[in-house]
Design a protein that fits this description.
- The complex is a heterodimer of chains A (296) and B (473).
- By secondary structure, chain A is mainly alpha-helical.
- Helix content of chain A is 76%, strand content 1%.
- Chain A is built from 12 helices and 2 strands, in the order αββααααααααααα.
- Chain A has a two-stranded antiparallel sheet with strand order 1-2.
- In chain A, helix 3 packs parallel to helix 7 and helix 4 packs across helix 7.
- The longest helix of chain A is centred in the first third of the chain and has 41 residues.
- Chain B has 473 residues and is an alpha/beta fold.
- Chain B is built from 24 helices and 13 strands.
- In chain B, the strands form 5 sheets. Chain B has a 4-stranded mixed β-sheet, sandwiched between helices.
- The chains are: A mainly alpha (296), B alpha/beta (473).
Amino acid sequence: MMAQAQVSLAGRERRFALTLFLPAFVVLLITTTFPIVYLIWNSFFRLNLSMPWRSGFAGFGNYVRMAGDARFWHSLELTAIYTVCTVTLQVLLGLGLALLVTRIRKGQALLRVVSILPIVLAPVVVGLFWRTLVLSPDFGVADFATAALGFGHPNWLGDPGLALIAVIAIHTWQWTPFVFMVLLASLASLPPDVYEAARIDRANAWQRFWHITLPLIRPAIVIVVILRMTIALSAFAALFAATGGGPGTATEILNLYAYRMSFNELSLGYGSALAVVLLVITLIVSFLMFSLRRQR
Amino acid sequence: MKDDRRTSHPQSTINSGRRRALKQGAVLGAAAIGAPWVMRHAHAADLGAYQQSKINWRQAEGQSITVAVIPASYFQNLISITPEFEALTGIKVRYDKVPPGQIRQKAILDLTSKTGTYATHAADPMYYPLYVSNKWIDPLDRYLNDDKLTDPKWFDYDDIIKGWREADSLNGKPYGMPYDGEVTVQVYRKDLYDVKGLKPADTLEDFVKNAAAINDPGHRIWGCALRGFAGAGQNMYIYPSIFREFGGDWMSGGQVQVNGPKAVEALDWYISVLSKYAPSAVRNWNWPDIADAFSQGTLGVYIDANSSATVLNNPAKSKVIGKIGYARWPKGPSGKRVTSIWNWGFPINGALSEKAKRATWLFITWAASLETQVRTSWKFSGSTKRPGVNRTSLWRNPDFTKVMSKNGYHFVEASLESLEHDTDVDWRPRVPQWPAIGDIMATEIQAALVGQKQAKQALDEAQTRINGVMKKS
């Protein structure tokens, strides 16, 4: 009797939980799952709005076409360079800043507020700001600096080689504070007694960092790297506003190529296939990173 | 914003009092936000000029249409006086303001899905071949030739600028009705030219010479600028004129050809003049960037839309007011001057019901009519008197020229002569695949400009990609 009542109580609980959960689940289904399924579906079709009469099932045609598309491979390469460079720089700079700031006793709060500013700016604003006010040759702030230092007038966004460096710098500028804040929080939570013990054992600063600090904040670093990688892989707005993928195709990462293909050339089928490839890459990378986290 | 409020006013009572209610709503809304000029309009709408047309303006009364436009002042003026149209016809108009970067995609999505969401939209003239090949829009001749729908004498279609009519037509049939447009012209620093004894360039060679004479980066003044940023509406807005002036032809044997010798010459000219006499930032500049640089007094000349005059004459930003001169495109080696045929026209969505199509046509003719053009231009009570009127007779009207000549020396003359003599309907390849072609060309032109590739190599690669687009996709 008693057990039965408990079961039905548990059942009621479950039903109640389900009703609470269902609306959110449906919304999620409509807003994320459905578009992804539809994207994958589209990627198997010849779907070009400028030539609708040629629309039809293409099977793996779009993916086969990709293999021979030099611009696709180029964009893939850029995506890899962009992601690896921005994430590495962000983690190194963010960690360095965090280690530095954690020693400051007074005014930490102010530094935290200041450092959050780039994050809260809309990426499009960041892109336009850097494009017109900072990096524009002969007119931008960076130009005055380089000219004063005797480096001349580099055309940051107009030179194919420099443009890639410039967009990496922009992304790093905007997101290093994020890494900094997470790592600062995690440094603040480290137990002081371990360090005291290490000091008694005469461990020097480098040893303390390498053998204590780093292993202790490793989970935070891994999470930050995962988050930053997925965001960097799908970076769009700031790049779009700053260079639009140019000059030529010098900063055209996969995401921008998919956009240009879908919405400028109106080739939605091929554009979807490109986006699916990006999705798969992002999934694989996150999976690898998570499994790295589970080790040990 | 205030107009969104008015146009979305709940349509609660469908009766004779509705208009009054709407009008009151508009007045209240406007007064609340503090825009008294809307109030004047709502009260004193004089519809006499429209009623001289021998058609029944009220034949589609009760219809409700949605129009997509871009958030630009020339459409804002039209939106402001739309209560007059609603009073005249009893048709309700709702506007959807879509940024220029998305309006094409949104319109295409609507047209492909045949939902008829937008009865009409501000259309890019380059998209008519695509629209027409899919039969998404109606040819307008059947509306123009129907005396129940159009009073030919009153509407006077032939008064609309010829180049724009042709740009919005295909195979001799009109598909869009030009509302506002522009031409590309030379915009130069008259004061600097006068000091050096220069005249605005008559040929592309002169253009280079003038740029060389003015260029003095040490004193922060550069010879010239042209749009360098990649995009169908950016560098591919300027290059086509140069290409045509060099004698280039987009179509060869029914195929789009972009890598012929004339194309290479044209691209080499563009790259050479910009590399020598433009600030190096020009590689990433679109028209607002160029207009800003010019209004800061750092450019001798640039070629761009005459409509950027409004920016150059903004007293809050510009240092060159009163020093600006305008001239037609310099002649190319072929002896031709080729300007843009850009205009925002209104097509009729083919997916609409017959009655809604009639309502849309009434809206389109109202917007394109001489009277509305006047009321949204120099008679407009707000501060921006739009310069892009669609009628030759208006460009010759002394009232119009008086207002517009404030834009600078020879503004009206240069614009009108360009409109009359330099428009070229084939300045860009008019094929349904234009969206892809425009983007491919834009990318390759910029790649050549920044030195990623030689001109010939860039155009060859563009040709390969275009061949791919035309064949499969």
